[in-house]
Structure formats: structure tokens, C-alpha cells
Design goal:
alpha/beta, six-stranded parallel sheet, 22 helices, 17 strands, binds adenosine-5'-diphosphate, binds zinc ion, DNA binding, hydrolase, DNA_helicase_ATP-dep_RecQ_bac
Length: 524
């Protein structure tokens, strides 16, 4: 059933219907593969031109291309876009009236439609499948294919049922597309959809023009104000967790003379679309938004994306920061981070995910998000490796850690004191108490438990209590200590703790602020 693909025909069609003279990376190969009847798994970053990978074959194949897509609004946009290009397209989804569906079905039976967008719940209904089997289906495309995987960040149970498509249409090639897939998800997509030895295309996720930065969250509003004051006239988005924060922040920015508006799901549709329009037309500089903002907004010159709060995982972070710099010009991605925020997020996730498996996945993703915030290493490398991509450039020149490497100190002695202290405490106390013991406090708990006999008692100089807490947390992140406890977190030793006694090198971040020492007057 293989057919020779006419390359010239592909180029002509690309030019004629889409107005492009060249293919983006992978597009030509993918189009050729599906036309030759092969299954394809395409993992290409947002904006990489995935839609063309099934829209172009739809024009050359002669029959019908079915596209499964999760969002009605996205389907409508795509259909409008195709119709504007003179390509006959339609959608079948649950928001439609029966007569509309009948009319589309008639057109399909008459072979008048080339591209059909269907929601996952509809295409897996028996009646719909029976109908589709009557048509000359040439290709099935599964958009946002990561939704099929529990390891993904947007698992949709509806997508699971798509596994039956391969058995219903065994001869029809299938292409699965996603902009976001950690290695586990990739495997899952291929196996769930039962793709037959699929050709895999993995684009780079590196966005070289984006500069990543994580700042300690102290007075985020003031920091954001001063950043925007230095970047007047540029477009930016500030993502906040809470709807209330978007309102309050926008209000504060406006009082400082900055054109800012809030955006969140509670605002009326009319207000939201007006805000989007104003943003696209540069009538507003900054949108303070929840994650509801950004889908389907094609603004190439967003110069900065600020995260007022930590997102729940790196997929979300990548997607949200990815809205900056679509035009390829240098753009900033700044996140305000505090460990307290991270814990707050964990609490929210615990409430959100009640299913045991999904909750474990969410926690793992949360942990990676937090580690990204706290790492001293290249953030770009961290982000890319999360998506299974290797990045070998020793200095990316585009993240705070590469541009301003954090100063470190020899941490072996410090680590030794902490591990000694935690061991003697039997892993039953929190970081604050461990620091109290090391700093020689004589608070009630210490007296009551006789922790002044701990071998590490009062060995804390020259560091302050807050700085010791910082060291303890860093050792946890580095894996030399663990956090346990149901009610409140306690520090415990683990299998790697004893390494600190003989390790050759252990660097810890040189403490800068956060301790009383930082505020000591220069003159004693
Ligand atoms: P994705 O689905 O991967 O996020 P899209 O399919 O929406 O990407 O394409 C992103 C943008 O790139 C669209 O504006 C699209 O028209 C454009 N595009 C796609 N292919 C090409 C090409 N070969 N040449 C130029 N522009 C392209
Ligand atoms: Zn870097």
C-alpha cells in the first residue's frame, strides 16, 4: 500500500495553501512518512508547526483526515484557519446541535470534507465509530497526545479509549503529536495508541532566546514593580496562582502608572476577550493572569514572563515561559520562589489529586519543579534534561546560575556537624530544632530533652541559625539527608548520610543573607 510521495507536489501544496516556501524541521519527513502509511510519534515544541504535519497530508491523500483534539475552542480555531485557506474542514463535538451534526455527516458522506476535528469522547462512541467506518479515512491524527498518559501533566481519561482506534482502523496510519512529553509519557503514548513501529521525531525544546532566572521571593510586588519600571513599553505576563493576586497586583501596577489588567476564569467572557485583544494590540503592557491566560494567544513579542508563584510542575512552567519571545528576540523568564510557596503548592496538590497513582505522579513533578528552583546548576540544562534532552554546553549564557554562578564554600565540616547532630537526635526533629542545637540555644525543648549534650551542641559559629537551616535544606536537596514525618517534617539520616565523613568534595552555597549576621552593624 506504499505510494511514492511526490516531493514537488508537497512543496507546491505547501506554497499554494499555506503560503510557505520551505518546511520547518521534520515537517517534510513526517508528511512523507504518514503518506507512505507509517505511524508517527512527533514530539515538537509549541510553535514548531505540528498542525501542518497532518493538514498537508490531508490535502494530498485524497480522502479524509481525522484529528482528535481535546479542546472545543482549539478545534474551532483550527477549522476557521483551514476554511480561510480554502481547505474544507469541520468539527464534530458535544457542543453541537443534532441538526448541525447531521449536516456535517452528510457532507462527510459526500466526500466534501478533508479534515475533520473530533473530540475524544465523541470519536470513541460506538455510533460515531460506525459512521466513520463508512468513510474513506486516510489518516488519524491525535493532537495533544500526552493527555493519554497518567505520567503526563494533563491526563484525560477520555484519551485512554482512543486505544480502540487502531483496532477499528488497522490500515489507517496514525500520527500522535505533542509539545510536551517526558520520556515516560513518550513510551506511554506509543503503547496506549498501539502505534505500529512508529517513526519517532523529537524536536529540541531548547529556547535559546529565553533567559531563565529564579529570584528569592521577598517582596515580590516591589521587585516586579522595579523590573517593569525598567522595561516600560514592553509586553509581559505575570502569572499568579490566585485570582485575587492577579487583581491586587494589576491594581498596584496601575497605581504606579503601568498599564496592567488582571485575567482569570472568574471574569466575564467579554472582559477576558477584551483584555486579550488589548494585550495583542499593545493597549495594555502587562497582564496579571492565572494559568487561564495564554492558550491560543499568538503574540510574538512578549518580552517577559514573570511567575509570581511557583507553578505546579515543569511542564506548566515550560509552557508558560514559552509564551515569551516567540519572535526569537531575547526575553526574560523570571520566577519568584520561596520554600514556603513550594510547601503551599504541595498542600494544594495533595487536595487536588485524590487518586493514589495520580497524586504520586503530581508529587514527583512538584519535586522536580522545586529542585529546578533551588538548583545551583544550569537551569536550562535541568529543564531540558527533564524533557529527556541532553544539553552539553557548559555555560548556557541564558540562566542566572550560568551568568552569575553562586559562590560556594567547602561544606564537609558543616555537613559533618549536621549529620552528627541529626543522628544523635534520632531523626525526630525539624530543621529549626537541629539548627537550635547546633547554635547552642537553651530553649525549653533543648533543656527538656537534654539536647545540650548533643555532640554538635553549640558548634555553630560563625553561622547563624537561619544559615544553618539553609545548610540543612541544601543537604536534603543534595540527598545526604531526608525529610520524613506525617504531621510536621522532621530531618532524618539516610543511606548516603555517612558519606559526608569521607567525601572528597562537598560544596555548599555560601550564605549571603537571611542571618542576623547580615544585619550586624559594620562598626562593632
Ligand atoms: P504547534 O502546533 O507545533 O504549536 P502550529 O502548527 O500552530 O505549531 O504552527 C505554529 C506557527 O508556525 C503557525 O503560525 C504556522 O502557520 C507556522 N508554520 C507552520 N509551518 C510552517 C512553515 N513550514 N513555514 C513557516 N511557518 C510555518
Ligand atoms: Zn545555564
Amino acid at each position: 500500500m506504499e505510494m511514492a510521495v511526490d516531493k514537488q507536489l508537497l512543496r507546491d501544496t505547501l506554497e499554494r495553501y499555506f503560503g510557505y516556501s520551505t518546511f520547518r524541521p521534520f515537517q517534510e519527513e513526517i508528511v512523507t512518512d504518514v503518506l507512505e502509511g507509517r505511524d508517527v510519534l512527533a514530539i515538537i515544541a509549541t510553535g514548531g508547526g505540528k498542525s501542518l504535519c497532518y493538514q498537508l497530508p490531508a490535502l494530498v491523500s485524497g480522502g479524509l483526515t481525522i484529528v482528535v483534539s481535546p479542546l472545543i475552542s482549539l478545534m474551532k480555531d483550527q477549522v476557521d484557519d483551514l476554511l480561510a485557506r480554502n481547505i474544507s474542514a469541520a468539527t464534530l463535538n458535544s457542543s453541537m446541535e443534532l441538526w448541525e451534526i447531521r449536516s456535517i455527516e452528510d457532507q462527510l458522506l459526500g466526500g466534501k470534507i478533508k479534515v475533520l476535528y473530533i473530540s475524544p469522547e465523541r470519536i470513541t462512541q460506538d455510533s460515531c465509530l460506525q459512521f466513520l467506518e463508512k468513510l474513506d479515512v486516510k489518516l488519524i491524527a491525535i493532537d495533544e497526545a500526552h493527555c493519554i498518559s497518567m505520567w503526563g501533566h494533563q491526563f484525560r481519561p477520555d484519551y485512554r479509549r482512543l486505544s480502540l482506534l487502531k483496532s477499528k482502523f488497522p490500515k489507517v496510519p496514525m500520527i500522535a503529536l505533542t509539545a510536551s512529553a517526558i520520556p515516560e509519557v513518550r513510551e506511554d503514548i506509543a503503547s496506549q495508541l498501539k502505534l505500529v513501529s512508529p517513526k519517532k521525531y523529537l524536536g529540541s525544546f531548547n529556547r535559546i532566546n529565553l533567559r531563565y532566572e529564579v529570584r528569592e521571593k521577598k517582596d515580590a510586588t516591589a521587585q516586579i514593580l522595579s523590573y517593569i519600571a525598567r522595561n516600560r513599553g514592553k509586553s509581559g505576563i505575570v502569572y499568579c496562582l490566585a485570582r485575587k493576586t492577579t487583581e491586587e497586583l494589576a491594581e498596584k501596577l496601575r497605581r504606579a502608572g503601568i498599564k496592567a489588567l488582571p485575567y482569570h476564569a472568574d471574569l466575564p467572557d467579554t472582559v477576558r476577550s477584551a483584555t486579550q485583544e488589548k494585550f495583542v494590540r499593545d493597549d495594555v503592557e502587562v497582564v496579571c493572569a492565572t494559568v487561564a491566560f495564554g492558550m491560543g494567544i499568538d503574540k510574538p513579542d512578549v518580552r517577559y514572563v514573570i511567575h509570581y508563584d511557583m507553578p505546579k510542575n515543569l511542564e506548566a512552567y515550560y509552557q508558560e515561559t514559552g509564551r515569551a519571545g516567540r519572535d526569537g528576540e531575547a526575553s526574560d523568564c523570571i520566577m519568584f520562589y520561596s520554600p514556603a510557596d513550594a510547601l503551599k503548592m504541595r498542600g494544594l496538590l495533595e487536595k487536588e489529586y485524590t487518586d493514589y497513582h495520580l497524586s504520586r505522579v503530581a508529587m514527583k513533578k512538584w519535586q522536580a519543579m522545586r529542585d529546578f528552583c533551588e538548583t545551583r546548576l544550569c537551569r536550562r540544562k535541568y529543564l531540558l534534561s527533564y524533557f529527556g534532552e541532553e544539553y552539553d554546553d557548559p555555560a548556557c549564557d541564558g540562566c542566572d546560575n550560568c551568568l552569575h554562578p553562586k559562590d560556594t564554600i567547602d561544606g564537609r565540616d558543616i555537613a559533618n556537624k549536621i549529620v552528627t547532630c541529626v543522628t544523635a537526635l534520632g531523626g525526630k526533629f525539624g530543621a529549626g530544632h537541629v539548627a537550635d542545637v547546633i547554635c547552642g540555644s537553651s530553649n525549653q525543648t533543648i533543656i527538656a530533652y537534654r539536647h545540650n549534650r548533643n555532640p554538635a551542641y553549640n558548634t555553630g559559629k560563625p553561622y547563624t541559625r537561619v544559615q544553618w537551616i539553609g545548610f540543612i535544606k541544601e543537604l536534603v536537596r543534595l540527598g545526604y539527608l531526608s525529610v520524613a514525618g506525617d504531621k510536621y517534617p522532621v530531618i532524618t539520616t539516610n543511606s548516603r548520610s555517612k558519606e559526608v565523613t569521607f567525601i572528597q568534595e562537598l560544596r555548599l552555597t555560601r550564605p549571603t543573607s537571611g542571618g542576623e549576621a547580615a544585619f550586624k552593624p559594620a562598626v562593632q
